[in-house]
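Form 7-S
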Amino acid sequence: MRVIVVGCGMLGSALAQTLSLRGHAVTVVDNDPLAFERLGPSFRGQTVLGVGFDRDVLLKAGIERVDCLAAVTTSDDANVVAARMASQVFHVPKVIARLYDPRKAEIYKRLGLATVSPITWGINHIADLICYSPLETVVSLGSEVDIIQAEAPPLLVGRTVRDLTVLGEIHVVSITRGGATFLPTQSTAFQDGDLLHLAVLSTAAERLKELLASG
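Output:
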C-alpha cells in the first residue's frame, strides 16, 4: 500500500516507521527539515519538504497514486485542510486526520471525514483504569470502537452470543475456549472459562459491563 503521512512529529514519525517496516511504501511530508531526523537511518520511505496541504507539495509526494493519507501534524486546522484536499480534490481512497479538539472531531465525522482524537481516547481509557474496569482493551480502532477482552462471567454461562449482542454497539467477535479461538454464531452458547473478544462502541462500555454483570 502507498501512504502519505503529513507531519513528522512523534506520532507521524512512529507511524511512518511502523508502516514502512510492514512493507508499505511511505512518503512523509513536513515543513521542518529537521523533523525527518526522527525517522532514523532505518527508514526506507521518501520525504518531501513543504506544507502538507499545499497542492504542489502533495503532487510531489505522489498523492495521485496513493492509497491512503494520514494527516497527523500538531495543528487541527492543517490536518483537516490536508485531509479534505486529499479526499475531495485527489479522491484518495482512505483519509484520516488527527484532531485534538473532540468537538471538531464530531463535526468532521458527520461530514464523512475519518478522524482520530487522542484526547477522547485517553479520557475513556484513563477513566477505565481509575474505575478498575474488568474489561481489557486489546486495541482501539480510531476513537470510537474498541476491541475488548473479557472472561465470560458465571451468570453468562449457558446464555448465547445473541444475549450479549447489541446491534451497532456490542458484537462478540471471537471466543477462545480450551486454547482454541473461533468465530461464534448468534446461537453459540457461552461456557465456563470462555475468553471473549468483543467489538464495542466507546459509548456502550457501561452497557457491556451491565450485561456481563447481569448475564
